[in-house]
Write a sequence for this structure.
């Protein structure tokens, strides 16, 4: 019940009455915060009161409610965000905390506030630690909203308050995975934080380091996993290293045999070291005859006596065999070669066929992929990749394609305009084109032209 709360005095009373009402409400919230839940809409109006003490006491009451039940402040999130600009530190600190709690519970409700949460990263510790926490909750779901503020976020890594450091590191993990190279500008600072004094900071720094492509990372993480003083850090670093290693290769063994249909693009890894890929679109699937095929065809009126031989009858094109797959045929239209995949006793064998003959390979992996990513993996030095970024057309000549530090990279150069672009086709966002300065944009409508 809230009927005995002095809400009318808070909104309509004299200066003294409003001041006393705010104090009463603050005290009530400290004892029974959820008692105010139904009155928050009226309560937050007082965050605009001209008296500092009223705003401070009301913000304190909202703080109590938001900490006790974060979702309770969802209907009043907008005025709380506005109060982040209040001239009183205590008010800003008290509204920042429930916003952070709400972002953790319902990030969708707070996503509109990203710009308003960026500026307080330079506020006092109690404010900036909470807005940093809020941003770390928003980043995994809405990285595109935070990416325009990458400069402010990376600068925040130099904050000397460890809760801010830990939250910003977690925020940047989500952004780095979607926009590879974004954190390259703070590589030195990240290296420092990997050995920070506070365990939670070291842990978060190691997670971010594992998501980057910096040359010092592997050795630094190996040392943390071996010798960090905190067992949780050692455990999480090992997990981060494993995740980074496996994340680059989302292998789907034999998926082409089990599930690919005509039109599915597939990439065949034939050598782990030099890592060339045979890539093509599925154009044919050869199956073994199953014991039930004869019965099925007869049920559709296709009888043995209608054919001169049993073989001709079984080969009736309207009723393809339904047994296990024996072979899958792929075609690469850019380089004009074919691939035939066959299942051997334990593995998959691949045969590449072109105008000059054929060559057999052992298939390390067979991956079913979307067409754009398959075209990236088909690229070899000398080929040309064309694609669209943000509505603008780009064309690069592929200069390198292969593994570096355990991750597959394709780099192309536009010599005329003087820029390089790198694709990382096994990352969480494989179609992100990364420029040298670290900015990344999603590529669309990828086409590949084989080199001469």
């Amino acid at each position: 019940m809230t009927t005995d709360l002095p809400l009318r005095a808070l909104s309509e009373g004299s200066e003294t009455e409003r001041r006393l009402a705010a104090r009463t409400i603050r005290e009530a919230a400290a004892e029974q915060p959820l008692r105010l839940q139904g009155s928050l809409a009226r309560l937050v109006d007082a965050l605009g009161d001209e008296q500092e003490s009223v705003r401070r006491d009301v913000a304190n009451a909202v703080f109590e409610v938001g900490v006790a039940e974060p979702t309770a402040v969802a209907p009043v999130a907008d005025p709380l965000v506005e109060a982040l600009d209040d001239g009183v530190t205590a008010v800003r600190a008290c509204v920042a905390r429930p916003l952070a709690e709400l972002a953790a519970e319902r990030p969708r409700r707070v996503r509109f506030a990203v710009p308003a949460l960026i500026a307080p990263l330079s506020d006092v510790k109690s404010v900036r630690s909470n807005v940093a926490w809020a941003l770390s909750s928003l980043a995994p779901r809405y990285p595109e909203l935070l990416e325009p503020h990458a400069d402010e976020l990376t600068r925040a890594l130099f904050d000397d308050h460890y809760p801010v450091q830990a939250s910003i590191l977690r925020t940047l993990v989500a952004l780095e995975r979607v926009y590879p190279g974004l954190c390259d500008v703070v590589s030195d600072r990240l290296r420092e934080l990997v050995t920070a004094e506070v365990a939670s900071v070291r842990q978060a720094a190691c997670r971010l380091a594992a998501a980057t492509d910096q040359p010092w990372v592997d050795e630094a993480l190996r040392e943390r996993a071996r010798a960090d003083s905190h067992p949780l850090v050692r455990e999480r670093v090992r997990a981060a290293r494993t995740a980074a290693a496996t994340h680059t290769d989302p292998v789907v063994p034999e998926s082409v045999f089990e599930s690919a249909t005509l039109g599915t693009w597939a990439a065949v890894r034939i050598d782990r070291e030099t890592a060339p890929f045979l890539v093509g679109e599925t154009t044919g699937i050869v199956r073994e005859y199953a014991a039930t095929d004869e019965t099925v065809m007869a049920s559709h009126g296709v009888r043995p006596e209608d054919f001169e031989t049993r073989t001709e009858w079984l080969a009736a094109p309207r009723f393809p065999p339904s047994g296990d797959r024996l072979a899958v045929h792929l075609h690469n239209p850019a380089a004009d070669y074919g691939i035939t995949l066959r299942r051997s006793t334990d593995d998959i064998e691949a045969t590449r066929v072109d105008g000059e003959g054929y060559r057999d390979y052992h298939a390390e992996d067979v991956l079913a992929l979307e067409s754009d990513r398959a075209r990236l993996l088909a690229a070899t030095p000398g080929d040309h990749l064309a694609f669209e970024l943000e509505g603008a057309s780009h064309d690069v000549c592929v200069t390198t394609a292969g593994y570096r530090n355990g991750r597959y990279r394709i780099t192309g150069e536009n010599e005329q305009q003087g820029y390089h672009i790198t694709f990382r086709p096994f990352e969480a966002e494989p179609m992100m084109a990364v420029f040298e300065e670290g900015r990344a944009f999603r590529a669309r409508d990828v086409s590949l032209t084989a080199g001469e």
Summary: The mean pLDDT is 83. The longest helix spans residues 15-31. The chain has 20 helices and 13 strands.
